[in-house]
Design goal:
It is flat and about 50 Å long. It is an all-alpha fold.
Length: 106
């Protein structure tokens, strides 16, 4: 979206720098909070990195498969990614509301 809306290269460069800084802060914060207060910090950090790696693999793979198998429908890859994100959100809520997670918060 930033590429399409940037009126010039300097503004695009500033937008990309801002995006990179915000993505780095988000990554560092999520890694810190996934490991903070845990006795198994190494395992928690490894799980965090594994989830990021799986997400970076599955997202583009879904878009590629959607674009290859449904060339007449350009919106299908977008809908597939949205469905994948919703499935991830439902899985996150399910895990967060599990009895094991509730017991760990006490």
């Amino acid at each position: 979206l930033g590429i399409a809306l940037a009126p010039s290269w300097p503004i695009l460069l500033l937008a990309q720098i801002g995006y990179g800084l915000s993505a780095g802060l988000l990554y560092q914060s999520s890694l810190f909070y996934s490991m903070a207060g845990s006795e198994t910090q190494g395992e928690d950090g490894a799980a965090h990195e594994a989830f990021i790696g799986v997400g970076q693999m599955i997202g583009p793979l879904v878009v590629f498969c959607g674009a290859q198998f449904a060339q007449q429908n350009a919106a299908l890859p977008v809908w597939l990614v949205l469905a994948l994100m919703m499935a991830g959100f439902v899985a996150l809520i399910t895990v967060a509301c599990s009895p094991h997670a509730r017991a760990a918060r006490r």
